[in-house]
Amino acid sequence: xxxxxxxxxxxxxxxxxxxxxxxxxxxxxxxxxxxxxxxxxxxxxxxxxxxxxxxxxxxxxxxxxxxxxxxxxxxxxxxxxxxxxxxxxxxxxxxxxxxxxxxxxxxxxxxxxxxxxxxxxxxxxxxxxxxxxxxxxxxxxxxxxxxxxxxxxxxxxxxxxxxxxxxxxxxxxxxxxxxxxxxxxxxxxxxxxxxxxxxxxxxxxxxxxxxxxxxxxxxxxxxxxxxxxxxxxxxxxxxxxxxxxxxxxxxxxxxxxxxxxxxxxxxxxxxxxxxxxxxxxxxxxxxxxxxxxxxxxxxxxxxxxxxxxxxxxxxxxxxxxxxxxxxxxxxxxxxxxxxxxxxxxxxxxxxxxxxxxxxxxxxxxxxxxxxxxxxxxxxxxxxxxxxxxxxxxx
Length: 394
Ligand code: SF4
What we know:
Elements: H1 2-8, H2 21-34, H3 37-50, E1 57-63, H4 69-75, H5 82-88, E2 90-95, H6 103-116, E3 122-126, H7 132-135, E4 139-143, E5 146-149, H8 150-159, E6 163-167, H9 168-173, H10 189-192, E7 198-201, H11 208-221, H12 233-236, H13 240-243, H14 247-252, H15 279-282, E8 317-321, E9 327-330, H16 338-354, H17 360-363, H18 375-381
Parallel strand pairs: 1-2, 1-3, 3-6, 6-7
Antiparallel strand pairs: 4-5, 8-9
Helix pairs in contact: 2-3, 4-11
This protein binds iron/sulfur cluster.
């Protein structure tokens, strides 16, 4: 009944089964809060595919330096099931975790996709690009007696793809695989494909809705609007902090002193104020729960520079300069959000102090960090460049 009510508010394009884009965007949020948005979108999309209005999206997935976490996360999509999506929406051609065939037979499918439908398929990359010794610490295929590196295969297949989507923080920004001191010289996909734009669906792992929602947008409307780090704004447009149910505690200065408590987790290291993701409304494991709902701090896994710039996960840096030279303890700041977020949090802190809401304990909440590499060293091990998009926000 609930889904019926929701669907009645959604309009379809005249004489077509396809959703209007603005209704799709509505479903992304409403479907996250109240139900599974993929479940809502899949039936009309499957009908549109069956009616020939759109064609199944050809997809190939290459896994490079990774733990396969994003495949496992994607498998965890509940309603519809992953197999529903494969049957009705996507033409999932090659994926080393899911291939039914093995070895040369599987590799041949990848080669055929590349050769026969250039500029028509989506390349999904999972895992970071291992660059040390020309990528030879990460072999992903074997062809005519030659071992093929992830670096080489992603470049070759990526240059002829219609869209390149990097899923997970390793593929998007280097992630844990590129952690300091980064002996494998690992990096994100955009750094090895500077000629073209890469859509970053970050997260450790990426949420299945973020992956599937991005693919659905590509199938129905083309490239989604991206924010400054190449992430779709529909999923990464707001901070965790802005939508957090414990925000009132933060504003009132009511803080947990230990992990496991019910209050705002800012003092025990929560990185929600500098982390862009919609986890508070979407939640995880079929919307069952999410880290802050389990009384553990957000660790900022969707941000560039994760994990180094977010570590230690249970303490803060005294990052925010305050009028009069005082520094307010806050989260460690992601590479890109440093300026803006610092200003926003400082502004918020000033107004809260003025109103007397932030308690004394906030000003003394910094837990000193030990054995942390310098920011400069961390930045060097997480270097990345981003390809500007015409619809990418500055
Ligand atoms: Fe929620 Fe963390 Fe912000 Fe507190 S600091 S309100 S727990 S996101």
